[in-house]
Each structure stands twice: as structure tokens, then as C-alpha cells.
Amino acid sequence: MKNIIFLAPPAAGKGTLSEMLVNKYGYGHISTGDLLREEIKNQTEIGKQAEDLMKQGKFVSDDVIIELISNRITKPDCENGYILDGFPRTLVQAEKYDELLKELGKDLGVVIYINIDKEMAMKRACSRITCPKCGKIYNKYSNEMKPKVEGICDDCGVELTQRSDDSEETFIKRFDEYVNKTMPLFDYYKNKGVLKTIEAHESKYDTFNDAVEILEK
Ligand code: AMP
What we know:
The chain is built from nine helices and seven strands. It is of the alpha/beta class.
């Protein structure tokens, strides 16, 4: 299995698509956002550093992120392939990741860019709710993404919550960070010949089918 990097603005559907691909192919799933939220929950040093930055919609330092990634990609569930959901987000991270792959003798794989316009991404972010226990993502305004019982996780039965950085104000800051710091990675990976583009369709199944087509070509 080819490793996958998702390159996309906030709320483009990286998490949902990752979950669907993990279920189909058995990839290891690495979400740097989830790793950081876990650090915050456990009140670690990294968590303390990250919390304020995340609340403000700013990026966490490259060194912290690289440390989290290098610990995570060597875990057994990543041996046969993994999805990077939210990493790399800066050129420094991409370059350091290339060095890390070289050291570990691993392949970069494929980079999938998910195209979505700002209005649609904002609408999705502001109506997104997640399960604090299993991390499953729901959306109040999408028929196929709604929980069966309003406000409750289908799998865990616990109350769904909104991420503190999914407000309109913080979303705009996160989107700006993405345009300024992450968008340059589009050319970085295009020049390496590993970049593929898909659209963030209204239906998650259409987006999933486009991703599967790329992976099975
Ligand atoms: P996400 O769950 O991917 O939307 O990430 C939530 C937040 O975590 C981002 O807005 C950043 O503050 C932080 N974050 C996640 N991944 C990274 C990364 N690769 N580099 C810097 N900050 C990150």
C-alpha cells in the first residue's frame, strides 16, 4: 500500500476520508490534530504549548510536530502503509519529513490534494461535531453525516461536542495559516511528481470513490 498525505484546507474532509480508507484498506491513521488534542487532554508539556496556539487557529511549532510524527510512523499499525492527515503543513515540515523517510528507508507515497472553496469549508467547520471518545466526525447539516440520534455518537452513545477551533472567527485564521504556510506544498509535491487532485464533493462517497480510483490505478 502506498502511504498517503492529504493536503487540504481545514474542514475539507481529510478526517472523514481517512476513516473510510482505513476501513477499506487497513491503513494506519496519523492525524497530527488528534495527536495534539490527546496531548492537551493528558496535560503534557507539548499539550500546554499547543493549546493556546490551536485556540487561536495558529500552527504548532515544526519541531514539536516532527517529534510527534517520528514517534508515530514507526508504530506497528503503520508498517504496511499509513495516512498522514494534517501533516506536513509547512515547507520545513515537508523537508524534515523527507529526511526522516530517508533515514527510515520508507517511501513518500502519494499526495492527494482535496480541493474545496473557502465558503463550503467554513460551512462544514461551523456545523461539524465530533465524538470526544472515538473521534468520529459528524455534521449537523448533512443528511449522510448526521448522527442517528441528534447530538449522540452512533458508536459510543456519548454526547457529541464541537471543537473549540471550529468557530467562524478561528476558522478564518486557520484558513489564512493554510493559504500562507501550507499552500506552497502544492508546488513542492507537484515538482516531485507525486501530487494528485480530487474535489471535495457534497457526498463523502463521491470523494471516497475518487480517492480509491487514484490508489488503485
Ligand atoms: P486539524 O485537526 O488537522 O484541523 O488540526 C487542528 C490544529 O492543530 C491546527 O489548526 C493547528 O493548530 C494544529 N496542527 C495540526 N497539525 C499541525 C501541523 N502539521 N503543523 C502545525 N500545527 C498543526
